[in-house]
Prior knowledge:
heterodimer, A: mainly alpha, two-stranded antiparallel sheet
Amino acid sequence: xxxxxxxxxxxxxVGAAWLLVAVAGLIPAANAAFARRFAFPLGAAAGVxxxxxxxxxxxxxxxxLTLPLGLPDLPFxxxxxxxxxxxxxxxxxxxxxxxxYAAGYFREEPSGRLTLVCLQYHVFLASMxxxxxxDDAYLFMVAWETMALSSYFLVITDxxxxxxxxxxxxxxxxxxxxxxxxxxxxxxxxxxxxxxxFDALRAAQLQPAWASVAxxxxxxxxxxxxGMIPLHAWLPEAHPAAPSPVSALMSGIMIKTAIYGMVRVIxxxxxxxxxxxxxxxGMVVLVVGAGTTLFGVLYALVQHDLKRxxxxxxxxxxxxxxxxxxxxxxxxxxxxPAAGVLGLIAALYHTLNHAVFKGLLxxxxxxxxxxxxxxxxxxxxxxxxxxxxxxxxxxxxALAISALPPLNxxxxxxxxxxxxxxxxxxxxxxxxxLLPLFAATxxxxxxxxxxxFVKVYGIAFLGRPREPAHLSPLPHAGDAGPMERYGxxxxxxxxxxLGLFPTSFLLMLNRVGVSLTGHGLSEDALLGSGWLWLxxxxxxxxxxxxxxxxxxxxxVTLLAxxxxxxFYHGRVRFSDPWDCGYPEQTPRMxxxxxxxxxxIRHVFGPIYRADRRLPGPExxxxxxxxxxxxxxxxxxxxxxxxxxxxxxSKIALLQQGRISIYLLYSFITLLALLVFVR
Amino acid sequence: xxxxxxxxxxxxxSVFVVLAAxxxxxxxxxxRAWLQNRSAPSILLPYFTLAKLFHKDAVFAHDxxxxxxxxxxxxxxxxxxxxxxxxVLATGLPxxxxxxxxxxxxxxxxxxxxxxxxxxxxxxxxxGLGARREMxxxxxxxxxxxxxxxxxxxxxxxTQLTTIVDSLAHREFALYPSLAFAAVAFLMxxxxxxxxIPIDNPATHLELTMVHEALIxxxxxxxxxxxxxxxxxxxxxxMTIGIALFAPWGIAAAGDWSALPYAFAALAGKxxxxxxxxxxxExxxxxxxxxLAPEFLSTAFLLAVLGMLTHFLVKG
Lengths: 678, 316
């Protein structure tokens, strides 16, 4: 190694560098060009360095360090192990693309706001790095809360808009409910021994009931941050409110730190190598995961706000990750750690894949917003003509999220399917036949996602603008600037690399699995057929070779093209669209986003709470409106909010505003203390 | 397996499927005409149609984007790839391990996504309508298809189509109740995915009911020819998947030239029967309303799930 710093020291340096960039952005406050030209690119460079360090850490034994920071007697402990290394790699590589993009995206931002955004943005990045590095509950919670607060400030960048302030508040509220659950979980694990390092929590011997309590607290605590149902409500509000690079960071990376927390607490702190993970927990995770998956994609299909739609897809993908995690827990709980590790690998690989393609899609949405000022799909159309490069990158993201081969989304879903197909080794009959049903959920969600992205892409980029040229910004929309494009190109390349060369990443994730459970897939099987082949268990059982697949599909497509070119005369005419020969057709007759979702509303009617206004026959200005609301608001959030209001209104009776009453309270308290505490 | 005969078999099979696919369409059309008491067109008519289309001038709408231009080739490429994965004439082809049944379903999904995108590209009312309906049928059919394939995968302990076929073809004859359920489900998916009655009618351009035809409304000449050809290959691929899963007897192993004539004859016989069966189904059934398609396909899905559960219950 020699000149290179050790991964732990290096990651610490990167965290410090991000903090430094954040502060440095403040100094030349008058000069916004500084943030644009130096701060964000420096942040991106630090991200690349962090990715390299994380990659290195996966292959090394864990390293620990005690920092001379924190409270007296309560120093910060940090540690880097394969799991942390993998997530640091995710954080570094994805944030690098987003930071480069941000350097271009914020070009028209007023300088005062930009320096603030730059500060919060890099504090946000650094806090995520420290969440991943923390080795004691104290530093973990400090970093976790810093992450929540800095992202809250980023969400309310446009705080003049009341709706955005409301979205920010909702986010902060749910983030803190989650944080309380996590804190309680650490409390349960800790059991009153006064030592909050993860080593001590790992060593704790919990009774099964307390272990289950700790599991539930961790699951719902981290789940609130991840956006699983029923705690997802902040996600579709906060993501559209934030500036696009921030949405990409939050959706791509921040909700993944919650997955990290879940894996860390459930598999490492509670489970450990002693195998305390119970299969019943896995079933809970699977049921919630399946619900989250379907809910996310079905609600995404009826959205017309592009960023809201993407946010619902984040909910869906968290569900897919949970499906992988749940299967892992079921297999480990039944004593099949090798199959369990396959599920864990599938979940973690999907975590990485989702970070890459969702980051890319949010950046694409940001570029659309930037050049047209539009987020509503119903107004868009034909953007591929004005912004062909953005359209190209967005297409890659759309194909990847739809789990189509040979891109990356397909690989992780393929691995999840393979995990489900291991169900035959389970002894428990009911669970054995349930696992393939969860796989069916995944299949349904994948196909629905494809439908949703046909809608997004077809309506936004393809087709024609609905309004005449002088009324609409669409025909004049320019392509994204160079920095924005580099950021998107980086992530788009990631979709290809992760999709085409999964075996090397699988080996890496296998190390993570081994470090967590003490078991793993056989490396001989993984490598037996060469790096071209993805063989999780044994050749003949399941294999997939994305490179050969890709080469063949490109080759036969080109062959078809060349053959046709060779034998065809090649005459082409241009004319108006035919469209069954109907006269008087206008671009306004194209499908809108709401129209595209109509069959879904029809088929899955009871899931939605839709308010649809149709124009009457007499209306001179016919208007159609559709509002689909989340049922969770009505059965969960509003009743809870009303109960909280009721309780606080009763407590408010104590507050009379007269000094004599308050003195009376003190007096009664004293009396009570005298009676009870003797 | 990666020997010269294996590769020769691979190329032979891919070329054979591409060339023979329109013949199957011609056969189905001929059978249907007979069943409906019409005088049948030549079995070679699909080839003549393709040749005719390849001679015409291509017409593009003014607004067509590269997606519109490339989609026919991508569709053709996807289907050609599928033809290389499915064990049509022989198992153990060298390319087969590169993609298993899940990847195969992925290839069809990729083709579907591109054809839906191309339909929306011109910005016509019918294009969007077709894309929407196609994706609706697609997302209903895909899980049912996967469940069917998973049932077979559970029986043979592999997701490799070639391993599945090997293990199913060389077992002693026994009636698997799970496979019976799966076969019915597969048949329903086949009808839906290939735009056949009762989900879609390949013979009409009736504006309000069409699905597949609405997708390709704006295509002409060579592009239309490629798409029609790809559709024929798709039907061929689906039928051979069905044959491979539910009636695999007689298939050759890659490199075994002596078994090839027998495999060829067996395939021709099975396809002729299957094509006639398809024509019969299309004659006796009527097209369903679009919103009955979800019921049709969720029945297929439930049958496939039942098949899988049966496998777990009775181990067979």
